[in-house]
Please model this.
Amino acid sequence: MKEIFASTEAGLLGLAIFVALFSVVLVWVLRPGAKEQFKKFGDIPLKDE
Model:
């Protein structure tokens, strides 16, 4: 088990997965229609029900 976590290939694969996931999240957050959606989410605690 120790050899799996110490291998260079596993580290590079983990880094590649992290960069890909980070890029997807960044694109999702910065898409054109996201601003209105996040404004709606920000107003949720202020709604009186």
